[in-house]
Amino acid sequence: MAEVPPRPRRRPARADVLAIGAYALLGVLVCLNYWGDVQHRVSSHLPTDHSWFEWLFAHGAHSVRHLENPLFTVQQNAPDGVNMMANTSLLGVTLPLAPLTLLLGPQVVYALYLGAALSATAATSYWMLSRHLVRSRAGAFVGGAFLGFAPGVVHHANGQPNFVSNFLLPLIVVRVLRLGEPGRWRRNGIVLGLLVAYQIFINEEMLLLTALACLVVVVAYAVQRPHAVRAQVGTFLAAMGVGGGLALLLTAYPIWFQFNGPQSYRGLQGGVFHSWGEDLMAFVTFARDTVAGDEAVERTIGLTEQNSWFGWPLVLVALVALVLLWRRSLPARIVAVLVVVFSVAAIGPKVRFGGVETGVNGPWAYVPDDLPLVEMMMPTRLTLVVAGAVGVLLALAWDALAGTGRPLVPRQRTASGPSPAAGARRRWLRGLGYAAILAAVLPLIPRPLPAERIDPPPHFITAGGWRPYVPAGRTLVPVPIPSNVHGLHTLRWSALTGHEFPIPGGYFIGPNERGEGVFGAPNRPTTRLIYATMDANEVPAVTEEHRRQAVEDLRYWRASVVVLGTGPREAVLRELMTALLGPPQHIDDVYLWDVRDRV
């Protein structure tokens, strides 16, 4: 349902190859710091998320290898388990890549996939722009690069590959806009249904944002082209029905499992995400992971997701382009609507400016915390739609400057033909326009993501020394027990051994006693004692009640062995566990408490 300029029949392939090659190089650049020591490096900014997604790749491989239900696992948070559909499980990626994970390990596959997902998103965006919106290959390249490597997208690449796995979204948008084509409603509906169903297993939140953006696009188009819409609405609705019905048929059970299966939940406790609104100054600020970015700025605006950190040059260029294209380009007017709607919607419950919360209510002050579909959304992430709209605008502006779309500068003619002076002026303005776009986007080229070293699991774990101690149906209890705050290195014990033994605790979202979603397992008395000891770096007075509770907790976890390796607070943790369970065995490079005879 969009006006697409006519395309030449033949398109040279060289430009496409060069574009995809450039995107691949950018993907390698972003992940460069991981490859220096890929087995022992994680994101410096989100190391726990990085380890969680390594664990997810191992989960996909474990599910395929053992033919287990990938929607649920008891290899983490034993014995209760984790509802994988109710978490960011990335099943649409981890399951197909399971053979590669089994061959190379989750660390290598994580780094490979992260760069590939960024590049693939840029490539499908380039295809969408060059085949369906603009004729200029250079314009499509610039727009595709921004859509794949926008500052907000690269920010999420710090440990959250689900938010950079957007390669299906341009294909979904194209298919939605083609639903009104006469005579092809079944085919278009089926293709859309398949794409939507697959995207559900990659990132439901980005699918929701895309659906909201498509809704705004269709409404904006209908307002401006009512006659065209009346001619297409029947076909559009029929194709939409086919697509929606097919997607529902393919995903009905997984979605039911997500909301009604074991360890499902309803919303997050306290609606914690709703307070994450976008700071108005963020739009004109350079993101941390761009060549023009500076970490120090986070101390002024605040530590938040940098979804809209475009930098002031791009904001200025975008505003000028919208003004110049407004009367000439329907797609530009639709882009303007997207920018305004989603920029305003991204403001949280209170308007923030320069890191200071004002007393002015934002739109989310009027959104109930438990509203279905949006109950777990962060307002700031709505600006990812704005980033997509800006990428399209860059392609439109470049196309107009190149003269292949609606020109930004109208041609002036004399009675005898084009005016030489006007032609010279046009060439000068065209060069100025190209320079302005490049000056706006070049500072946003991503830098390699920062990475830090993390200690490998103990040899006792990786070499299988644990096997005689952990029979089927029992768990290995690592110390500290992993959570969203503690035990990052012990969570990796499970990931890097292919989930061969279940562990209690973990990094996930599960239900509390009221059915609300909370991060991690509800802390039992022994886990609280371990975390308090780590935080204080001092062993408290251990009582008989502590010892009794430790045995009760180990029985609940179905523990067979407690293992302490090298890591933070190793000395005080060994002293604490000795006070609780008695002297350990020192086997290989770990301290071990065999508790099978106690539980």
TrEMBL record:
Question: Could you identify this protein by its name?
Answer: DUF6311 domain-containing protein
Residues covered by the DUF6311 domain: 71-356
Q: Where are the transmembrane segments?
A: 17-36, 108-129, 138-157, 207-223, 235-256, 309-327, 334-353, 382-401, 428-445
The record's section on InterPro entries has:
DUF6311
Lineage, top-rank taxon, reads Bacteria
Mind listing the UniProt keywords for this protein, alphabetically? Answer: Membrane, Transmembrane, Transmembrane helix
Coiled-coil-forming residues are none
